[in-house]
């Protein structure tokens, strides 16, 4: 399937999910996750009208960024080691995986302008997942005030993989609740307007629960490598 054909189907699904909860479909942005696919396929996504590209590895992400000449808006969605921050700053516009103080420090040290960050939250509490525990999010965000080059644009989570996507709803709903708590603080450095949640198998549920960025790999560009 072409990316264009996949995108048309996905846009219909987004539209339907939005109708179910009376949201405007334009409030949902698609990040095409190109980690499984070739440069050509990533380029095809851009040509199909995709503007947000997501990669989860520093070397591969940088390589693709160079090949595609940085076209579009780039999202770093994977675990980020502090020593690699300098390699993503200036290329990736968004970092979805801010989950510890040492990483915040390093971003502050390497950035020359504001970096849009999502706080990654481990809503499900699985040991294998990265992210801050829900009870610690508020305190963590307050400490970000010390880092003027970090803007907390939102929260990100990965739901557990389950057969029945309906079971992911509770995690997305929880992230939305945490977002409301953060917004109530009215911190200028943490507007927290965005929710990065939902992948190929569960994005329709995430949208019903308030996702503003959905991260789609398999269903949109496929899985080649
Ligand atoms: C790979 C990945 C995705 C996309 O996964 P699909 O199920 O292929 O849509 C989304 N988010 C993160 C953080 C990923 O690593």
Blueprint (SSEs and pairs):
Blueprint: H1 3-20, E1 29-33, H2 39-47, E2 52-55, H3 58-67, E3 73-76, H4 85-88, E4 94-98, H5 101-110, E5 115-120, H6 137-143, E6 150-156, H7 169-185, E7 194-196, H8 203-208, E8 213-216
Parallel strand pairs: 1-2, 1-8, 2-3, 3-4, 4-5, 5-6, 6-7
The structure holds pyridoxal-5'-phosphate.
Pyridoxal-5'-phosphate (PLP) binds next to strand 8.
Q: Please bin the fraction of helical residues.
A: 25-40%
User: What compounds are bound to the protein?
Assistant: pyridoxal-5'-phosphate
Q: For the report, how would you describe the main beta sheet?
A: 8 strands, parallel
How would you spell out the order of helices and strands? HEHEHEHEHEHEHEHE
Instruction: Classify the beta-strand content into a percent band.
Output: 15-25%
Order of the strands making up the biggest sheet: 7-6-5-4-3-2-1-8
Oligomer: single chain
Counting DSSP H or I runs of 4 or more residues, the number of helices is 8
CA distance, first residue to last residue = 16 Å
- Quickly give the structural class: alpha/beta
The Cα radius of gyration reads: 17 Å
Low-confidence stretches: none
Looking at CATH, which topology would you report?
TIM Barrel
How many beta-strand runs?
8
- Identify the overall geometry: globular
CATH class: Alpha Beta
CATH superfamily: Alanine racemase
- Second CATH tier, the architecture: Alpha-Beta Barrel
Structural domains: how many: 1
Average pLDDT rating: 97
Explain the overall architecture.
- With 225 residues, this protein is of the alpha/beta class.
- The chain has one domain (3-221): Alanine racemase (TIM Barrel, Alpha-Beta Barrel), CATH 3.20.20.
- It has helices at residues 3-20, 39-47, 58-67, 85-88, 101-110, 137-143, 169-185, 203-208, and strands at residues 29-33, 52-55, 73-76, 94-98, 115-120, 150-156, 194-196, 213-216.
- Strands 7-6-5-4-3-2-1-8 form an 8-stranded parallel β-sheet.
- The longest helix has 18 residues, at 3-20.
- It is globular and about 45 Å long.
- The two termini are 16 Å apart.
- The mean pLDDT is 97.
- Bound molecules: pyridoxal-5'-phosphate (PLP).
- The site of pyridoxal-5'-phosphate has 13 residues, from strand 8.
């Amino acid at each position: 399937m072409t990316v264009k054909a996949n995108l048309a189907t996905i846009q219909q699904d987004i539209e339907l999910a939005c109708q179910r909860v009376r949201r405007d479909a334009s409030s949902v942005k698609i990040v095409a996750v190109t980690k499984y696919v070739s440069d050509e396929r990533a380029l095809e996504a851009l040509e199909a009208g995709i503007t947000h590209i997501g990669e989860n590895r520093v070397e591969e992400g940088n390589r693709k960024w160079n090949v595609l000449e940085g076209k579009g808006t780039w999202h770093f969605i994977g675990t980020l080691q502090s020593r690699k921050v300098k390699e993503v700053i200036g290329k990736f516009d968004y970092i979805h995986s801010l989950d510890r103080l040492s990483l915040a420090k390093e971003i502050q040290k390497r950035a020359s302008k504001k970096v849009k960050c999502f706080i990654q939250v481990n809503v499900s509490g699985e040991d294998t997942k990265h992210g801050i525990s829900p009870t610690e999010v508020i305190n963590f965000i307050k400490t970000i005030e010390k880092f003027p080059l970090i803007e907390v644009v939102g929260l990100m989570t990965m739901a557990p993989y389950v057969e029945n996507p309906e079971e992911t709803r509770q995690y997305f709903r929880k992230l939305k609740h945490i977002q409301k708590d953060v917004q109530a603080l009215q911190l200028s450095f943490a507007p927290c307007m965005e929710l990065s949640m939902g992948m190929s198998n569960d994005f329709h549920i995430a949208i019903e629960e308030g996702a503003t960025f959905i991260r789609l790999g398999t269903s949109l560009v496929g899985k080649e490598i």
